[in-house]
Amino acid sequence: MFSTKDRRPWNGRSRSIGAAAVSAVSVAAGLAMFAPSAVSAAGGQPAPTTWPALEAEAAPVVGGGGADAAVIVGVEAYDNLPPVRGAIANANAWYTWLAKARQVPARNLRLLRNKEATLEDMRAALADAGNAVGAGGTLWVVFIGHGTPVSAGDARRRDGGLVGVDAQAREISLTSRSLGRGELMRTVGEAAAARRARPVVILDACFSGRTASGDALAKDLQPVLNMALAAPTTAVELAAAKADQAAGPLPKAGTMVRPAFSYLVLGGLRGWADGALGAPDGAVSAQEAVAYARDALQTLLAGNRTQVPDLSGPGLDGGLGGAPFVLAKSGGERGPDLIAMNLGTGSGAAPGTGEGSSGGGFDAAIRAALEKQAAADAARAEAERVAAEA
User: Fold this and answer.
1) Per-residue DSSP letters for 85-135?
2) What is the C-alpha to C-alpha distance for residues 71 and 60, in angstroms, rounded to an integer?
3) What's the pLDDT score for residue 292?
4) Which member of 82, 101, 153, 173 has the greatest number of CB atoms within 10 A?
5) pLDDT class for 338, splitting at 50, 70, 90?
């Protein structure tokens, strides 16, 4: 179904995503907010300065999901492991967006929360969704919970596992009660190929063997350093972090705790990421969604945590290049003003005092933002000059 020779996007659009087209979404949206009268071009509304509770705010209807199917897994309260706070809220938000904004038929959606998310339940839900997706639709899998490194059948190799709710805090249990990432990719890839659909996997979990606080997930589990997972060949994967990094909570969110990556990607689909790699065009690609999440985390974490979201899959050039893989129409929402959050005028603490902020890191983030914007402006000017001479 996938071909690296066919560089056209699935919706027929053709767009070049090169270095000259890259702009900093966190900066482009945010720097204008230094002017008190800055407003959104769409509707004349200022950008919000706090993270909204996506599970409670209706998203604009975009449609396009009539042939889709999805499995959404959110595990917040594990039986024997530390909790993943906010996982249920994010899972609910994803379910609502798919059902009401994307308009996926409710019969094609499987939502597994906490006790419902055993290894057997996840396998059964994947089978159901694989049978339900239609030709031309998207088979979505969203997992929000713990991940773990597991053996990939060779003692020298490692894979990732999506930890079921009943896993114990022992390496043997984490391995036996987790859904292997390799198994997941094969399952959705085969189902999508049989139904002529597109498999999209969004993993808000990490496979380093550590929790977001840096502690080992199990006492006898050795955290993995410098591990690189094989890129999937049968599905497009949006991952919360590199294989040896920890996936953590949304920064500058005050008392609202949410796993960062699944929250930011969903916000991106609502419109926040449209234009993250160029001019807005009314659609959000996988590349744009990951670029937005990267920029938001880089801007707001200010060096307190290293979490670099990743994108991989057939025809994606191992990163954010290649033909755009369009996920959905944009909902047209404007994302929160990241610079205002860093300045302490949003929901987060004042600069230098709150999570994801430090005195020197904040100044460095502002300098980096200005430099990034200047580079983008220069690239845009050069592109306009070349076009005028053509």
Assistant:
1) TTHHHHHHHHHHIIIIIS---GGGEEEEEGGG--HHHHHHHHHHHHHH--T
2) 21
3) 97
4) 101
5) very high
Tokens of 290: 């990951």
Backbone angles phi, psi at 297, to 5 degrees: -70, -40
pLDDT in tens, 245-289: 889 999 999 999 999 999 999 999 999 999 999 999 999 999 999
* pLDDT at 41 exceeding the cut of 90: no
Structure tokens at 171: 């390496």
- Cβ atoms of residues 70 and 104 within 8 Å: yes
Global confidence as pTM: 0.77
What are the CA-CA distances from residue 186 to residues 70, 191, 199, 200, 236 (Å)? 16, 8, 10, 12, 12
- What's the token pair of residue 256? 């609202």
Enumerate the β-bridge partners of residue 160.
149
Residue 32 in 3-state DSSP? helix
Q: Which of 234, 232, 235, 211 is nearest to 223 (CA)?
A: 211
Q: Is the pLDDT of residue 359 over 90?
A: no
Which residue's entry shows tokens 């070049």? 16
Alpha helices in 196-268 (DSSP H): 260-267
Report percent pLDDT > 90 for the chain: 56
Instruction: Point out which residues pair with 202 in neighbouring strands.
Output: 142, 238
pLDDT for residue 2 is more than 80: no
Q: State how far the Cα of 145 lies from the Cα of 153, in Å rounded to an integer.
A: 24
Q: What is the pLDDT of residue 376?
A: 65
- Residue carrying the six token digits 């391995």: 175
Give kind and range of the element (H or E) at residue 161: strand 158-163
Helix, strand, or coil (residue 58): coil
What is the C-alpha end-to-end distance of the chain, expressed in Å? Answer: 37
Hey, what amino acid is at 166? D
Q: Minimal CA–CA distance to 265: which of 116, 117, 148, 98?
A: 98
* pLDDT average, residue stretch 325-353: 77
Radius of gyration of the chain (CA): 20
Q: Report whether 181 contacts 158 (CB < 8 A).
A: no
Give the span between the Cα atoms of 128 and 139, in whole angstroms: 11
Read off the amino acid at residue 123. Answer: R
What is the Cα–Cα distance from 321 to 99, expressed in whole angstroms? 30
Q: Would you state the structure tokens that stand for residue 381, as one six-digit string?
A: 């000017």
